[in-house]
Amino acid sequence: MPVIDVTPDPENCTLTMTARFDAPVERVWQIYADPRQLEQVWGPPTYPATFVRHELRPGGMMHYFMTSPEGDKFPGFWEITAVDEKTSFDFDDGFALDADDFTPNLDLPVSKNVYRFTADGDGTRAEYRSVYATAGDLQKVLEMGMVEGATGAINQIDELLKND
Questions:
Q1: Is the pTM of this model over 0.70?
Q2: Does residue 80 have a pLDDT over 80?
Q3: Which residue of 9, 23, 42, 51 shows the fewest CB atoms closer than 10 Å?
Q4: Phi, psi at residue 68, to the nearest 5°?
């Protein structure tokens, strides 16, 4: 299991997850840079993702939806704010009202995220940090199952890497 640490910090309104992958940084980066690979690991295993827009560049947008086993769609968006190719990217992550136009759902929290990938021996250490506007927003996503969903999603990366 790649996820090695999960740290919710209500005082600082953050959720930090750390993972380690048995692959070089460049290979882990490719997963996020390629929407077809990202679809295989974004979202919990029973809620596969479909990316309909993928612009991994500053100012770019990512639009996706996860599909439940019953066929319900849960849309979201990333607004990319910074990219250091192969090592990190920053983005605002939010929920959308529908999978047609991806209008932000203002009733649910938006988080500011930093994903960092660094060499760790013959593998990669990944840090996924989300910052929420309030401790209440953090609590809301924790109650929605964010830790379980994100852990399940990140752990799928190992299977994808095994198929190389």
A1: yes
A2: yes
A3: 9
A4: -75, 165
